Inverse folding.
């Protein structure tokens, strides 16, 4: 076995995400449900998608975990609030009621709804995306995460991920996030407030 440090231990973001996953896993175990719901909110580029994907890989129980990213639901660049409401009505509420939820992916190129996906209420569920923690969604999540990161890091990651596609819309999207923070105070609805560099 090598005594050299792992690549993730040399990457501050990776290390912080691993630590965050550990805290979320502990919270999931404490809930004690077979089908808990985890909600992950944070501004664009904070690391929500990476955190959610790592959480799927380290889920504390066997079986399938469902992951829904709001990037697949927002109806375009002005659709933050509409996407969150769509997730509440079509994903979170059905799951809470024990019925199958159905959502349609938003095709960003065609600017129209695309194929449909089902959400099984008997299985655990992770939903991640900007704008997600609101007074109406918070009561539907067992573990609610607000992920914080410095503005410069977020912008670098967001633009680095999506490049020229996102750059013209960064300020437009950030204004919707500003409104969400002011209106919904998402950190107040979180059971965990976690930070990454």
């Amino acid at each position: 076995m090598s005594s050299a440090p792992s690549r993730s231990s040399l990457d501050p973001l990776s290390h912080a995400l691993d630590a965050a996953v550990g805290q979320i896993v502990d919270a999931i175990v404490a809930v004690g449900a077979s089908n808990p719901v985890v909600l992950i909110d944070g501004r664009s580029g904070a690391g929500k998608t990476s955190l959610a994907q790592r959480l799927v890989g380290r889920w504390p129980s066997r079986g399938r975990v469902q992951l829904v990213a709001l990037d697949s639901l927002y109806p375009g660049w002005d659709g933050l609030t509409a996407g969150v409401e769509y997730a509440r009505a079509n994903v979170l509420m059905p799951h809470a009621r024990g019925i199958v939820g159905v959502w349609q992916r938003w095709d960003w190129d065609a600017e129209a709804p695309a194929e449909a996906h089902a959400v099984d209420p008997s299985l655990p569920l992770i939903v991640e995306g900007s704008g997600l923690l609101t007074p109406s969604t918070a009561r539907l999540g067992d573990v609610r995460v607000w992920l914080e990161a410095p503005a410069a890091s977020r912008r670098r990651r967001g633009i680095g991920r999506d490049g020229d596609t996102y750059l013209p819309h960064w300020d437009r999207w950030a204004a919707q996030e500003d409104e969400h923070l002011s209106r919904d105070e998402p950190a107040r609805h979180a059971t965990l407030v976690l930070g990454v560099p």
Confidence is low (pLDDT under 50) at residues 1-8. The longest helix spans residues 12-31.
